[in-house]
TrEMBL record:
<dbReference type="InterPro" id="IPR000891">
    <property type="entry name" value="PYR_CT"/>
</dbReference>
<dbReference type="GO" id="GO:0046872">
    <property type="term" value="F:metal ion binding"/>
</dbReference>
<keyword id="KW-0479">Metal-binding</keyword>
<protein>
    <submittedName>
        <fullName>Hydroxymethylglutaryl-CoA lyase</fullName>
    </submittedName>
</protein>
<dbReference type="InterPro" id="IPR043594">
    <property type="entry name" value="HMGL"/>
</dbReference>
<dbReference type="GO" id="GO:0006552">
    <property type="term" value="P:L-leucine catabolic process"/>
</dbReference>
<keyword id="KW-0456">Lyase</keyword>
<dbReference type="GO" id="GO:0004419">
    <property type="term" value="F:hydroxymethylglutaryl-CoA lyase activity"/>
</dbReference>
<dbReference type="GO" id="GO:0046951">
    <property type="term" value="P:ketone body biosynthetic process"/>
</dbReference>
<dbReference type="Pfam" id="PF00682">
    <property type="entry name" value="HMGL-like"/>
</dbReference>
<comment type="similarity">
    <text>Belongs to the HMG-CoA lyase family.</text>
</comment>
<feature type="domain" description="Pyruvate carboxyltransferase">
    <location>
        <begin position="8"/>
        <end position="275"/>
    </location>
</feature>
<dbReference type="InterPro" id="IPR013785">
    <property type="entry name" value="Aldolase_TIM"/>
</dbReference>
Amino acid sequence: MKFDPKQITIKEVGPRDGLQNESVFVPTADKIAWINQMSHTGLSYIEVTSFVHPKWIPALADAVEVAAGIERVPGVTYAALVPNAKGLERALTANIDEVSVFMSASETHNLKNINKTREETYPILAETTKAALAAGKSVRGYVSTVFGCPYEGAVAVDEVIRVTETLLEMGVQEISLGDTIGIAQPRQVQEVLEVLLRRFPADKLAMHFHDTRGMAMANVLVSLEMGMTTFDSSLGGLGGCPYAPGASGNIATDDLLYMLHGLGMQTGIDTDKLLEAARFIQGKMGRSLMSHSMQACQ
């Protein structure tokens, strides 16, 4: 391995990306209890919900109640997905720390996901970002289908560059590069990052892998070798995308932690406490979580 032990940031997206596509509605009180547990694991970042209209993501219809009801632990950033200015109003009411805006690198997925072209999406995200920054919030940007689109197939890296540059110019402070359908493989990740890291600093980018084809952990290893230090993950491997057919869960936080600690990387996260939180939400889901760590604990 060509990388040295270093501090790695894990951004936990389970309460949002993990639950948004689940058929089981987790009661509000259980969501709050789960997030509170994770707040005491050493995680420094938790994406707690989404302020997309409840009719589109009914699993997160209680966004305001969840965000307003959680315990705020010093040193933890509590973020939420925000689609537009109206969603931002609700997020600000709930005192979210960071706003996550989102769009796709591919036109068709953007139309399916947001019901707008990419050019129609930019002004909405610019307005949302400007208002969030004015309110003293940090802003993160998700770019979906970076490594492939369920409708268009391959996505040119130039399209990723165009979207990333536009979002950064708006004032977005970090871009999460999404392998939305879990189609990426290590050589592709290396080739894409070789191009992107010539244009953007590594600390402006994060990696967001899904594990549809079992490649997520290998893709993290390549990303580490390329100098990446921030990774999104979902406890227990929960997650998917309602507008990406076949997308399975995000890379599991518990599995990712096992590998990173084995490599001598520092995360600040307590594995035992994290697994306690995983067992808690597994009980509420009424089924086994798909992470290897949780399967090994059965």
